[in-house]
C-alpha cells in the first residue's frame, strides 16, 4: 500500500523583486517529511540556464523549525530526473509550512527588467510519509477475520 | 520466465490546454510497479505539463505533479531514465487511473501529439534484489 504523499506548494511571481509569502497546511494524516525539491514550473522562456532566479526559506511546524534555505534556478534544457533532497522532519498535526520566496532575477538595467519580466511559477514539492498506526493494523486484522468468516 | 515488462500507456492530446483522463490495467503476470517514465515528443513540452496517477485506488501523484519530475532529457542513458517508486506498488492487474494536463502555454508545438507513459513492471524477486543493492 502506498504510504508516501507528495505535497505541492505552488507560488506565482508577478513582479520583479517580489516577495511571496508561503503558508501551506499539509494533510493531517502525514506525520513525517522526508524529501524536498523546488523548481521553476512555468513562465520563464530562455535558451540559457539561469543559476539564480530566486531565494527560498521554508519553516515547518508553524515557524518552530527553519529547515530550508535554497536558491531556485532555471533549467533551459532538461537533464537527469531531479532528485529530492533528503530531510527528516517530524510533523505536528495541523501545523503550517511557512516561509518566503524572493525573486532575484538580475538584469543590468531596471527598466529593461520591467520590460522583459513575465510572471512565472515556482513549485515546492514535499515528500511526506504516512506511517501506519496500531489502529490501522487493528482495523485491517478485523477486516481479514470478517472476510474469513464470510467465506466459511 | 520473464521478470521485466515495460507497459506503455498512450495518451493523445488534441488541443492546447487540454486535460485528458486515462485508464488502464497493469499486466496480471507481474507483481510490482517498479518505476515510471513519461515520454513527450519534444523536451520543451516538459515545462508546466502535469500528470496525476492512481494505482489500485491509491493516489501516487497528485494531478498537479509536474511531468519533469518523472522524465529526463534525451541525453540521459536509457537505464537512468526512469523514476523509481520508493514504496511498494502492487501490479498484478491493478487499475491505473490518471490525468495528463497540457499547460496551454507551449510555443511551437504541433497538435495533436501523443504522450507515452511507461510503467516498469517486475516480479517479486527482481524488486527485492534491487532494494538489496541500494
Question: How is this structure best described in words?
Answer:
The complex is a heterodimer of chains A (152) and B (134). Chain A is α+β, with helices and mostly antiparallel strands and 152 residues long. Chain A has 2 helices and 8 strands, in the order βββββββαβα. In chain A, the strands form 2 sheets. A 4-stranded antiparallel beta sheet of chain A has the order 1-8-3-6, with no helix packed on it. In chain A, strands 2-7-4-5 form a 4-stranded antiparallel beta sheet, with no helix packed on it. Chain B has 134 residues and is mainly beta. Chain B is built from 1 helix and 8 strands; from the N terminus they run E-E-E-E-E-E-E-E-H. Chain B has a 4-stranded antiparallel beta sheet with strand order 1-8-3-6. In chain B, strand 4 and strand 5 form a beta hairpin. The longest helix of chain B is centred in the C-terminal third of the chain and has 10 residues, at 124-133. Chain B is globular. Classes of the chains: A alpha+beta (152), B mainly beta (134). At the A-B interface, strand 1, strand 3 and strand 8 of A face strand 5 of B.
Number of discrete helical segments of chain A: 2
**How many E strands of chain B?**
8
Q: What spatial order of strands do you see in the largest sheet of chain A?
A: 1-8-3-6
Helix content of chain B: under 10%
- What is the residue-averaged pLDDT of chain B? 87
Low-confidence stretches of chain A: 137-152
Shape of chain B: globular
Strand order of the largest sheet of chain B: 1-8-3-6
- Portion in beta strands of chain A: over 45%
Give the termini distance of chain A in whole angstroms.
Answer: 27 Å
Q: Could you tell me the radius of gyration of chain A in angstroms?
A: 21 Å
Q: What characterizes the major β-sheet of chain B?
A: 4 strands, antiparallel
Question: What pattern of helices and strands is seen along the backbone of chain B?
Answer: EEEEEEEEH
Instruction: Work out the helix count of chain B.
Output: 1
Query: On the 0-100 scale, what is the average pLDDT of chain A?
Result: 81
Rg of chain B, Cα atoms, Å: 15 Å
Kindly report the greatest chain-chain contact and the residue count on each side. A-B, 24 and 32 residues
Largest sheet of chain A: 4 strands, antiparallel
First-residue to last-residue Cα separation of chain B: 24 Å
Shape of chain A: globular
SSE pattern of chain A, N- to C-terminal: EEEEEEEHEH
